[in-house]
Structures are given as C-alpha cells and as structure tokens.
C-alpha cells in the first residue's frame, strides 16, 4: 500500500471550508490502496472551531503533531478582536484605525509568505525522521497557508521525496494580497517563492481552471484540477421551510456585498404583498459590518435572521431545507476563479442556487452545466429579480425543485479516485 504524508494546517477541530478538503480525501484514500498519514500543528490558532468534524476522522489514521510558534499571540496583546479577524481573512478597508493598519503592514511585510513561517524549520527537521520511519514515498502540502509549501520544498531537497502541492486558493493573485499593504520588495518576495514552489514541485493540484491557466504561465510542471466536492450526509430527512427562505451559509466578508440583490429583494417586498409575507433571508457565519449596513439600508432588517456560526452538520441541514441557496463572490478579476467549497454541498442539497459574482465566474459554468441554479453579475438586477419572482411563483405551487440536477461527479469519493490516479508515479 502506498503511503502519503499530508501536511496541512487545518484539521479538526478547525471549522470552515479549509479543513474539509483533506479530511474528505483522507476518508476515502484507503479505498484506493493509499494510506494517508497526516501532519498538523500541535497548538494551532484556528479562528473557527467545529468539534463535530472530529467525528469524521477515520479510525486508525496516524496524525503527527509539532508545536508551532505563531505571532498572533503577541499581536493579541494589542488587539484580540482585530487579530482574530485578520487571521480569519476579514480585512475591512473602511475606517481602519492606525493599529489595524500597523497590524496589516506587519502581517504582510514581516511574515512572508504568512504568519506560519516559523513552523517551517522545526517541521522539516521533525518530518525527516517520520518519512524514514514510515517509509513514505510522497508528500503533499496544501495551502494556504502557503508556508506549508516551503516545508515540502525543503523536504524534497533533503530527502529527494516526491512532492505534490495542493493550492486551495491562488497565491499572489488572491484578492486580499492587495489589502496587506505590501511593499514592492515584499510583493517580489512572494512572487519569487511562488515561482520556486511551482517549479520545484513534481506535480501541482489546483481547485479551478482559472488557477491552472495562471500557474501554467509560471511553470511547465504537470497541473491538474481537482475541485472541492460534497460528501454523503447520513442524517435524517428534512422538511422544506414553510417560508420562502433564501439562505447564505458561510461568511460574508467585506466585498461580498451585492447591492443589486438587496435592492431586488426590497423591490419584490414592496411590489408583491405575498412575497413580503413569506420572504426570509437567513445568514449563517461571520457577516461583515458593511454587508449588514447595506442589507438594512434596503429595508431588509426585519426579514433577516442572523444564525451566527453553525456546525457543519447544521449547515447541511439548513442547505437541504432552504427554498433557495445564496452564493456570493467579490466582484473582481481576481475572484473569477474562486470556487467556494460550499457550492458543491449546495448542489448536492438539490435546492436552487442563486449566484452573484464577477464576470466570467467559473462557478457560473459549474452551476449551469449541473442544472442546479443560475448566476448573475453584480449589475444584473433585472434578470436576477425575474428569476427570484419565477422561483417564488414555483414555491407557491410547491413546485420549486431541480429535477435535472447532475452532481455525482463532485462526490468526494469520485474526486478521491481522481486524486489517487494523479498520485500514481510512472
């Protein structure tokens, strides 16, 4: 049986989408004669915790741990709230205090590629013995944080092991890089490290075709796309909401703020009394202040229910019983290749997806080809409003459904089968 070492920062009890990708791969790799061994930090700084995910770790999986020295502990001395937000990726560019600007500058310019850089050297020293002891042939590093790829880079130099990098998100082209107040020297350092990792790795995995095309301009190394996906959820059957619920599951960070959608919903409430009576907007996860301000500005406060952070199990339940599922991405060129992990769980729930995102958003093709909903760009208020009204009319007739949905190729086991073939070495 082939042994594979997976180096990841996010692992249960970490919550959020970042942990689920490799948790699910680990769950199914044994079905393809591959034994996964996992390496994680001993004392991580997880901005979101979901204890329920620990129940999904397969029995008997070896998990090695090593202490990590993270600077967030020091930063919390100045501002616990701001430090947690930055760690979670919440960077609000409006009304930044001097302290917040300082923390961002420090994060962007003193910790390259990221704040987990101090885990690199101790991990390399520790894992050399693990690789020899376990007779491991392949190492996989998954980022962000992209400092984990530098662990793989050094292990390859020292041990000549086969090394695969997995990019859940892009590196230098990701949107929040512009908010980190990077100096030109820091920007160049990121690009150098990105180029080095992409050209030293034996193989590369990405989650979107957009990232594959971007990386193919940097390296000739093999690149394959393995998206995120959905898993079979045991759980009891659920009953659809009585109300016309439109639910967004997951954080709505700064920038994910489709004013056209809030305006369309406001107009529907004003124009159709029955819509006003039945409509409910449900938001689960962290919601940035500017998004809430916009929602309330359009008179939707009394129709909005804030669920806060919910467990993954609860998220699946809400997805299955909501009438419509909302998917929102920042309107920018950099985000057209971002495919949120939850989109596949949305698809598996067989509830109509309403997407709002950038022009040429890759998610739009996925949703269209799978017959699971419709996506619009930010200015398309007329078309978006018509779709909502059509779905509402179908809801009133108890006919709002997706009879032609095709989602099986995105099941986690099917994706793991694809991964297992990519792990084969000639």
Automatic annotation (TrEMBL):
Q: Which UniProt keywords apply?
A: Transferase
The signal sequence is none
GO MF terms held by the record: glycosyltransferase activity
Q: Does the keyword Transferase apply?
A: yes
Q: Where is the Glycosyltransferase subfamily 4-like N-terminal domain?
A: 125-233
Q: Which CDD domains match?
A: GT4_WbuB-like
Q: Would you tell me the protein name for this molecule?
A: Glycosyl transferase family 4
